[in-house]
Amino acid sequence: MKNISQAERSDRLLLILTFSGGGTRAAALAYGVLKELAKAEFSLEGRKRFLLDEVDAISSVSGGSFTAAYYGLFGRRIFEDFESRFLKKNIQKELFSQTLEPENWFRLMSAKFGRGDMVAEYYDQNIFDGGTFGDIVTRGGPLILVNATDVTLGTYFTFSQETFDILCSDVSRLPLSRAVAASSSVPVI
User: Which of 67, 100, 111, 168 could be 30's S-S partner, Cβ–Cβ 3.0 to 4.6 Å?
Assistant: First the structure.
């Protein structure tokens, strides 16, 4: 079933989802919510519709950001490969293995490349296929608001154009992998 573009969503219904944190369990819960919304059929303006196709925005943090960003980028493809690409994959083990590779030792010792960069790189290559916030807009997906916390200051940061306007920047060019890495990152204690 095809995705309904932003233009085809009803103006009479506003549907905003929020996906919480909690690692893979949170991502799995968010995925289950999307599956149920994909089955929830209703009639609006004389047409049969599914609630999933009416989602206008998703605000997410941590584990929920994987599901939100993936759905925003790929739409209903999430039901074809999200489980195998993320939910049922031991990503922590794969990331740890990357730190043991000699070519990454030098990169990780650099002042310009850190653990967060390596994580974002992995997500970009193995989960989000290089997708950006702009790709979500091009596809006609819902507004995706990925939230992160600066643990040093205890402040939050939302990856949105409104926030990027303050920074005189453009969120559309930002890889989703960077936002999700920041949202799901827990510093080493």
Answer: 67
Average pLDDT value over all residues in the chain: 90
Write out pLDDT tens, residues 61-83: 999 999 999 999 999 999 999 99
Mean pLDDT lowest among 48-57, 100-109, 124-133: 100-109
CA distances (Å), 99 to each of 24, 92, 109, 116, in order?
21, 11, 11, 12
Buried b (16+ CB within 10 A) or exposed e, 123-136: bbeebbeebbbebb
Q: Which helix (H) or strand (E) holds 155?
A: strand 155-159
Distance, in Å, from the CA atom of 5 to the CA atom of 54, rounded to the nearest integer, reads 9
Q: What is the dihedral of CA 53, 55, 56, 57, to 10 degrees?
A: -140
Given this model, what pLDDT does residue 2 score? 45
**Please, what is the Cα angle at 9 between 69 and 178, to 5 degrees?**
15
Residue 73: how many other CB atoms lie within 10 Å: 22
